[in-house]
Recover the amino acids of this structure.
């Protein structure tokens, strides 16, 4: 069994439940764990990203972090959990060091994760972490505290957090090191120093963590580009390069929940339950009776995932393409690829439908219709498409805003919610998930069997 050597040096052990990731663990890591641990951490980070994009409240994000960590990162033994935590962080640090955009995303999400995990620690663990950071700040002496106590109490009352009789530990730090507390008027400032309460020290620690990680990512990138990438080109490099665009949900290679779409169902299903990316491809296919290869793959694998059988798929594509290229040319040039998608030709691989992440990362050219409309459409075309789907003007503004800010999956989620008048808290991460969730909602609203039979 292969393993990864070279995750050298020691794990910080001052606080076993929340390491500072100063250095990698001195372990041999199995290749399977190298990738699987990273994918589990990605599930946590991507869920946090979605929650923040949707404007979740801090207390909601804190609970989400706690639940996600238990679900994806906990192992039976505390030492195993610690190793998984540190290994997964350093693997993703390698994955996300490679471009400025990747670094920015990872830095933001890892900092957010650290913030909420720190807040979930008890007071003793927080103090231990503060010591581990080796920050040059000392608690305000009692004599000084008494002098400024009235001011501190005023600030505490103004933010709705009155000081308890026992809460007298404050740190005096340069105000520029706690910008979020200053901006929120949550600290008393005197002579260039901010008085930071123990329950606010998370801001101080997070600032230090972010600064350290930002520098570490730059250094990691230099090492990656100068040596690691070439040295590991046949082993780790393909894994690392794939992880940043990895989809971490179900693959939908088979129809779920007994959903099967037949030829007679497709038109109705496209109008009621296809996400915008697939509605657009479907409409262009009907209009032009042709799609380029990438468009055929995106739509064809989606239809496979919603249950269209091979024979029906061949009949569906033949009916459309024959109008443009003729039946004989279709059989010679296109039928093979359809059978190939279903694992009946070539290497007989059971190809999986494309995830949102893969669709978003596509780069359609002139005459192409694949990709994500929320990313690739102009604002005018996106508004027109959303209007055709029945999205109200008010909801449309929220969708457009998210698309402009590059929160494409959130934009798709808001579209789903607007059309179905139903919340989708887990967010849309896959076109086939969109279809299945849509069918569930439609079935629950109808007293008769819907066009696409979906069992609960």
């Amino acid at each position: 069994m292969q393993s990864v050597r070279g995750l050298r040096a020691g794990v910080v052990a001052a606080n076993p439940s929340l390491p500072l990731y100063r250095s990698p663990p001195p372990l041999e890591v199995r290749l399977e764990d190298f990738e699987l641990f990273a994918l589990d951490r990605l599930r946590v980070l991507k869920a946090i990203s979605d929650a923040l994009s949707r404007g979740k409240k801090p207390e909601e994000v804190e609970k989400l972090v706690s639940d996600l960590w238990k679900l994806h990162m906990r192992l039976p033994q505390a030492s195993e959990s610690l190793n998984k935590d540190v290994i997964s962080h350093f693997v993703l640090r390698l994955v996300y060091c490679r471009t400025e955009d990747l670094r920015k995303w990872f830095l933001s999400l890892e900092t957010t994760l650290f913030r909420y995990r720190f807040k979930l620690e008890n007071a003793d663990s927080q103090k231990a972490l503060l010591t581990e950071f080796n920050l040059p700040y000392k608690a305000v002496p009692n004599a000084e505290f008494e002098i400024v106590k009235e001011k501190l109490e005023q600030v505490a009352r103004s933010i709705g957090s009155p000081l308890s009789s026992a809460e007298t530990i404050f740190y005096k730090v340069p105000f520029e090191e706690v910008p979020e507390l200053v901006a929120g008027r949550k600290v008393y400032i005197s002579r260039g120093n901010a008085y930071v309460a123990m329950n606010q020290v998370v801001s101080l620690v997070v600032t230090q963590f972010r600064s350290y990680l930002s520098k570490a990512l730059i250094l990691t990138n230099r090492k990656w580009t100068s040596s690691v990438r070439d040295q590991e080109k046949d082993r780790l490099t393909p894994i690392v390069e794939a992880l940043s665009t990895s989809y971490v949900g179900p693959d939908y290679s088979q129809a779920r929940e007994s959903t099967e779409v037949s030829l007679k169902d497709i038109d109705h299903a496209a109008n009621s339950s296809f996400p915008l990316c697939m509605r657009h491809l479907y409409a262009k296919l009907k209009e032009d009776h042709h799609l380029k290869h990438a468009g055929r793959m995106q739509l064809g694998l989606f239809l496979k995932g919603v249950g269209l059988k091979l024979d029906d798929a061949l009949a569906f594509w033949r009916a459309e393409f024959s109008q443009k290229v003729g039946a004989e040319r279709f059989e010679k040039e296109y039928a093979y690829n359809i059978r190939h998608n279903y694992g009946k030709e070539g290497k007989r691989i059971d190809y999986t439908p494309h995830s949102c992440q893969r669709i978003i990362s596509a780069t359609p050219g002139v005459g192409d219709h694949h990709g994500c409309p929320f990313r690739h459409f102009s604002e005018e075309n996106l508004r027109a498409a959303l209007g055709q789907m029945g999205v109200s003007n008010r909801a449309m503004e929220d969708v457009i805003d998210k698309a402009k800010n590059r929160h494409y999956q959130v934009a798709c989620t808001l579209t789903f919610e607007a059309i179905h008048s139903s919340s989708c808290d887990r967010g849309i991460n896959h076109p086939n998930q969109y279809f299945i969730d849509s069918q569930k909602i439609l079935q629950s609203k109808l007293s008769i069997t819907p066009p696409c039979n979906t069992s609960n």
Notes: The chain has three domains: 3-124+206-243, 132-202, 263-445.
